């Protein structure tokens, strides 16, 4: 049995890791502690997970509990700090995506991993979702031959998308923006499908709806004088989790979970486009918007022997879906085929449950390479980080080679 501690006590830490460990995986996983800079939130998580020890000092938790693995689910900009310290303490690490937010922090993680011999696993749950893994299987079997071009469009709705601009994610220094925090999912999937190194890109980004584009500005939704006229008004007291874990913990650090999404501190983009060339010659056109009328994604993959048309529309932020999903296969002889995929109920299109099984139970066959290591985590985040630089500098840039970091 492996022992675990968790860094961070937000919703992802609670629902993706802590509760599943104590409720489902306790026969193979022993959760021994939780650390968060906000002790109120850490105590609340502890109460829901059998009273596990709460720590306000990360190093003390490592010294006292001596875990086999550290789960890092803190704010993105802090990931590298906890990952590096955990590796140096002799622990393996499970990191929420993104692994970190820029090249410098990425280099520190990879160096610590090499020096300590310990391992970092990044939780790219979309790899485990049946729809995405079916596409990988089709590509691996050469269904459309060599991949020439990918067009990939992701659209967040005006609830889920807007929510990133209320939180700490809305500042580039905290999250690397959506091209790192959110697109790391998408870039990883495309990297996995294409199976080649990202080589060169040019990116564009702007704010068209949030931040300085707002018609007015308050401090937070809870006290906003414009609440009656704002289409993005959100009453977090109406959500039991938000009220308990965030409103009830504000006295600790002053963090407002419903900060105005037109706040002057918002400096991330809500409209993004990336043109990328892989070392193999495959070209990618990628876009992300955070204010669409509905939520989902569309993609096409063009190869030597045919074309795949892909996509889903989701009814919730965690991509829960019911029923069948279709992959359209078009062959060069003019024929086509509909490939039906069972879209299992559950977080991230059924991917969360499969990922947890691989993480905690182990021994799962992995012919498609669904379990992502630090190299995959680095390759994904470096596309986003390089895209941010490209936008700022207004020019095409080479994507750092992970092997050279």
What do these coordinates show?
The protein is of the alpha/beta class and 405 residues long. It folds into 3 domains: 2-122, 3-Layer(aba) Sandwich (Rossmann fold), CATH 3.40.50.720; 126-210 and 266-349 and 371-404, Dihydrodipicolinate Reductase, domain 2 (2-Layer Sandwich), CATH 3.30.360.10; 218-253, no CATH class. Helices cover 32% and strands 25% of the residues. The chain has helices at 11-23, 39-48, 58-65, 79-88, 103-116, 130-140, 160-163, 172-175, 178-181, 183-194, 240-245, 250-253, 351-361, 374-393; strands at residues 2-7, 29-35, 54-55, 69-72, 92-95, 120-122, 147-157, 198-206, 271-278, 283-292, 295-303, 306-314, 324-331, 336-342, 372-373, 397-398. It has a 9-stranded mixed beta sheet. The protein has a 7-stranded mixed beta sheet with strand order 3-2-1-4-5-6-15, with helices on both faces. Helix 5 runs antiparallel to helix 14 (374-393), helix 6 runs parallel beside helix 10 (183-194) and helix 10 crosses helix 14 (374-393). The chain is globular.
Detail the poorly predicted runs. none
Q: What gap, in angstroms, lies between the N and C termini?
A: 34 Å
Order of helices and strands: EHEHEHEHEHEHEHHHHEHHEEEEEEHEHE
CATH architecture of the largest domain: 2-Layer Sandwich
Overall tally of domains: 3
User: What fraction of the residues are assigned to beta strands by DSSP?
Assistant: 15-25%
């Amino acid at each position: 049995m492996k022992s675990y501690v968790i860094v961070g006590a937000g919703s992802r830490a609670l629902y993706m890791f802590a509760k599943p460990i104590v409720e489902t995986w306790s026969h193979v996983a022993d959760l021994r502690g939780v650390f968060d800079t906000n002790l109120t939130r850490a105590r609340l998580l502890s109460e829901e997970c059998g009273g596990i020890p709460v720590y306000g000092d990360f190093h003390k938790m490592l010294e006292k509990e001596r875990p086999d693995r550290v789960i890092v689910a803190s704010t993105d900009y802090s990931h590298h700090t906890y990952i590096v310290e955990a590796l140096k303490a002799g622990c393996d690490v499970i990191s929420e995506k993104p692994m970190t937010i820029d090249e410098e922090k990425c280099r520190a993680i990879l160096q610590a991993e090499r020096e300590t011999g310990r391992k970092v696993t990044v939780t790219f749950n979309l790899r485990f979702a049946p729809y995405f893994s079916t596409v990988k299987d089709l590509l691996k079997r050469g269904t459309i031959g060599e991949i020439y071009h990918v067009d990939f469009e992701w659209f967040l709705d005006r609830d889920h998308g807007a929510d990133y601009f209320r939180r700490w994610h809305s500042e580039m220094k905290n999250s690397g923006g959506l091209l790192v925090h959110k697109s790391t999912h998408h870039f990883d999937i495309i990297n996995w499908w294409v199976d080649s190194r990202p080589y060169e890109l040019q990116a564009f980004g702007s704010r068209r709806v949030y931040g300085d584009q707002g018609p007015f500005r308050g401090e937070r939704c809870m006290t906003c004088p414009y609440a009656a006229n704002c289409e993005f008004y959100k009453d977090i007291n109406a959500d039991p989790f938000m009220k308990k874990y965030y409103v009830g913990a504000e006295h600790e650090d002053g963090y407002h979970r419903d900060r105005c999404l037109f706040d002057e501190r918002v400096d991330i983009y809500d409209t993004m486009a990336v043109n990328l060339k892989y070392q193999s010659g495959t070209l990618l056109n990628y876009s992300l918007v955070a204010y669409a009328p509905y939520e989902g994604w569309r993609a096409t993959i063009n190869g030597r022997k045919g074309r795949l048309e892909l996509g889903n529309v989701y009814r919730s932020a965690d991509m829960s879906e019911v029923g069948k999903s279709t992959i359209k296969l078009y062959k060069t002889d003019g024929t086509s085929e509909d490939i039906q995929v069972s879209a299992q109920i559950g977080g991230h299109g059924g991917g969360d449950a499969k990922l947890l099984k691989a993480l905690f139970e182990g021994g799962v066959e992995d012919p498609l390479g669904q379990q992502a290591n630090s190299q995959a985590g680095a390759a994904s985040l470096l596309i986003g980080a390089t895209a941010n630089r490209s936008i700022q500098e207004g020019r095409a840039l080479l994507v750092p080679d992970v092997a050279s970091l």
